[in-house]
Amino acid sequence: MLTRPDVAIVGAGPVGLAIAWRCASRGLRVTVHDPAPGSGASHVAAGMLSPVAEAYFGEHELTGLLAESAARWPRFAADLTDAAGADIGYRADGTLVVGLTADDLAEARRLWSYQQGLGLPITPLRPSELRDREPALAPRVRGGAVAPGDHQVDPRRLVPALRAAAERAGAVLRPDRVGALSEVDAGLTVVAAGCGAAALTGLPVRPVKGQVLRLRAPGRGAPGFRHVIRGYADGESIYLVPRDSGEVVVGATVEERADTEVTAGAVLRLLRAAVDLVPELAEYDLVEAIAGLRPGTPDNAPIIGPLPGRPGVLVATGHHRHGIVLTPVTADLVTELIVTGEPDPLLAPFTPVRFGKEPTWN
């Protein structure tokens, strides 16, 4: 006779797998349900850990959560590397935020001023200082800033490592699709199903399409730059994420659409902006063009906590652009809530009740 799990997790992306690992490591019996682990937004994601560069006007609580989770990432990465016996591509080279034109630089400076006002570590650089750090930047780049605490990880290494760590800790993965919460038999259920959480919970989670490119340096050498580069090029927002493998991730569009088709226009805009900032990318191989769906919410913040009207159900979804960087803090907060029954004060701004009515659920 099968033993009823203490915790069932619906969704095997980074958040769901990290919760499974942490809960199983605390001695809980854990089952994870997902027909295709790691095939959602994380498979497309670039893996930027950017609490500073992602700090936007009016998102104060989210900015605080991003900073808290980013501070946990070095220990989380070390623990995971030990638990899984695998390199997850964690790099702490920092991020450069740049502007190609005078207008681009003015927009970037407006955001830096806001970020500095919050006490976030971002330092404007003179053009000569910028090129000393990254000679690969185009001569046309007008200026930039450095965010030394904005790091990166490789999601395509992260997810297999989280799965290995969870399974080594005793979690069981089941390749089944959960169509309704009534199908799950466990002491407690965690819905970490990304965009799929809407159908299961009735919460306002919507798909936000993102198109991303992957380039590869010629001869499989390392890219000619080390920092993550984010910025504006003729009004186009762009990021470039170099990997030791020779890969460079270029992204990303933000579209209120639910399809995963790659469009020629998006590829053109991303490549033009990328080459404008780092000209050598024109000689790189284009190895992948892909689109995914981020789980967005009305206020762009995640939904973490008990599901109103449904005892024994927690949600951890709606992370939008921030699923990778928020993985450690989400896993820690949900695990502590499960183990102790006491919510951490950090959760207060992000619980489902903020949407003002009891959701419907399946």
Low-confidence stretches: none
- First-residue to last-residue Cα separation: 27 Å
Q: How do the strands of the widest beta sheet line up side by side? A: 5-6-4-11-12-13-10-14
Largest sheet: 8 strands, mixed
The CATH class of the largest domain is identified as Alpha Beta
Identify the CATH architecture of the largest domain.
3-Layer(bba) Sandwich
The helix-and-strand class reads alpha/beta
Rg is 20 Å
Number of helices: 9
How would you describe this structure in keywords?
single chain, 362 residues, alpha/beta, FAD/NAD(P)-binding domain, D-Amino Acid Oxidase, Chain A, domain 2, 2 domains, 8-stranded mixed β-sheet, 6-stranded mixed β-sheet, 9 helices, 31% helix
Structure description:
With 362 residues, the chain is α/β, with parallel strands linked by helices. The protein folds into 2 domains: 7-86 and 154-204 and 298-355, 3-Layer(bba) Sandwich (FAD/NAD(P)-binding domain); 95-148 and 207-296, 2-Layer Sandwich (D-Amino Acid Oxidase, Chain A, domain 2), CATH 3.30.9. Helix content is 31%, strand content 23%. It has an 8-stranded mixed sheet, with helices on both faces. It has a 6-stranded mixed sheet with strand order 8-2-1-9-16-15. Strands 3-7 form a two-stranded antiparallel sheet. Helix 1 (14-25) crosses helix 9 (327-340), helix 3 (60-84) crosses helix 6 and helix 3 (60-84) crosses helix 9 (327-340).
